[in-house]
Amino acid sequence: MKAPRVTLDQWRTLQAVVDEGGFAQAAEVLHRSQSSVSYGVARLQEQLGMPLLRIDGRKAVLTEEGSVLLRRSRQLVKQARQLEELAHQLEQGWEAEVRLVVDAAYPTARLIRALSAFMPQSRGCRVRLREEVLSGVEQVFLEGGADLAITGATLQGYLGSELNEVEFIAVAHPQHALHQLQRELGFEDLESQLQVVIRDSGSVQPRDVGWLGAEQRWTVGSLATAASFVSRGLGFAWLPRHLIERELQEASLQPLRLGAGGLRRPRFNLYASKEKPLGPATRILIELIKTYDGAALDAPFAAPLPPSSEEF
Predict the structure, then answer these.
(1) Stretch (H or E) spanning 43
(2) Hey, which residues does 33 pair with through a beta bridge?
(3) Rounded (5°) CA angle 123-96-284
(4) What is the C-alpha separation between 266 and 252, in angstroms, rounded?
(5) How far apart are CA 161 and CA 110, in angstroms?
(6) Residues in a beta bridge with 217
(7) Is 261 helix (H, G, I), strand (E, B) or coil?
(8) Using CA atoms, how far apart are residues 101 and 108, in angstroms rounded to an integer?
(9) I need a surface site. Which of 69, 91, 110, 200 has the fewest CB within 10 A?
(10) What DSSP assignment string belongs to 74-97?
(11) pLDDT tens per residue, range 249-298
């Protein structure tokens, strides 16, 4: 690949001449002699094979071609500066990427708020988010595929940060046979009905969660698919309240009148990998996840102010 003939310093020099209104002013800002500034711009024009500036009175004015190239050069210089800043941050221990694996049952709204607040503080750190179901979260995390994990399981040998509960409700379409009984239900009433369950995404030690006493079960790949099936009259299921709030309000889903077990409230935990020390970006994201985990899902969003540099 052919190396560029023009340097970033030459583009910076041209920008200074235009921004400051002349060669003498640019020389003062750049702490150079006026002759070196003039030579740098002349050399730039020679290498590009076109005039970038013309002198109008005592002021240097961009040509049409110069105006186009100057706009692009500003982006180039800015990107180079950001690259240098990122290199400095990496040298100081700032991560290039944080990998997060989350159980699909965890409220997305809480996660979006935490990540929205993280973005202006991230200093270019990327976030790789992965959703799994049940033991799939543990498998990805324990195999080293994530730095942070949000799961309803207890991981042996790890000290997790306790998050809030997620409420699961046993629901069915209003016209479902279970609602037509118009009485309190027992598990014996459920045995002859179709139960929709969500497949565990783990492959090492997949597990079943909740009541699975129905003779007929359909297994689907996501909570959203399960909610869609059940809201159209196909069976019953335990589903997270935050996922089906609209269906409950519109009465396309109704809670089953179970005497016991109609509600489940598993508590979720946030775990950090022990394979490497926590970097500053990971620590910031952990605190934001814990902060927004406690916020009401329908509360107005306001990102917190970024921490001062002294906190790093």
Answers:
(1) helix 34-48
(2) none
(3) 55
(4) 25
(5) 16
(6) 195
(7) coil
(8) 12
(9) 91
(10) HHHHHHHHHHHHHHHHHHTT--SE
(11) 999 999 999 988 889 999 999 999 988 778 889 999 999 999 999 766 55
Q: Cα(239)–Cα(252) distance, rounded to whole angstroms? A: 14
Of 118, 122, 140, nearest to 131 by C-alpha is 140
Q: Per-residue DSSP letters for 56-67?
A: ETTEEEE-HHHH
Tell me if 141 sits within 8 A of 204, measured CB to CB: no
Residue indicated by tokens 């210089």: 77
Q: Distance (Å, rounded) from C-alpha 165 to C-alpha 135?
A: 18
User: How far is CA 233 from each of CA 34, 105, 184, 223, 238, rounded to the nearest angstrom?
Assistant: 80, 22, 20, 16, 14
pLDDT tens for residues 26-70? 898 888 998 998 888 888 888 888 888 887 777 778 888 888 988
